[in-house]
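Sample pair:
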Amino acid sequence: MVQKMSEVESQEIQIETLESGLEEVIGLPEKRGEWFILQCYTGQEKKVQTRIFSVVEEKSLGDKVFQVLVPEEEIVEIKNNKRLEKVSKIFPGYVFIEMVMDDAIYHEIRSLMGVAKFIGSKSRPTPVTEEDILRVLRKMGDKSKTVDVDFEEGEVVKVIGGPFRGYSGPISEINAEKGILKALISIFGRETPVQLDFDQVERAV
């Protein structure tokens, strides 16, 4: 006796077939390996990255090691009324590697100059979760610049540019991401909150 397939089972098979077909047509990326975190000595991140690339090339490990990243971000630093743009490491002292882990490649990378250890247990490195590595990759792809300032709320600043030049007042609010602050300026004897760019003010002497 032939058992009749239920409508739900039929739909599930159709969906699986469709997904399989899509993978073949659009070439969905296959999972190549897992991500691991390598701890390095201070200031050695880029050198370790270069050494790993050299080992991969010399020993034809392209089928084992796929990506070696030192996550960085652009920072605008405003200090002593001077604006400086620089690139800063998001995770100082760490290198992220997408790879297929085995004992041979573990010891190969672990023995490189500047390497401290793989993050994980003593016997086995622990892979980074997909959620965590996606967060890191999104952070690297974010082109907005972090602004680091040495102003503080309540600090008195002097306006050196714009229509309120020459006025002084305490800072009531700071928005580092947008590069602006609000200062309480005395206008006609009344404190008025005025929005200013960081480069429009300086510390009052």
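Residues 17-29 have pLDDT under 50 and may be disordered.
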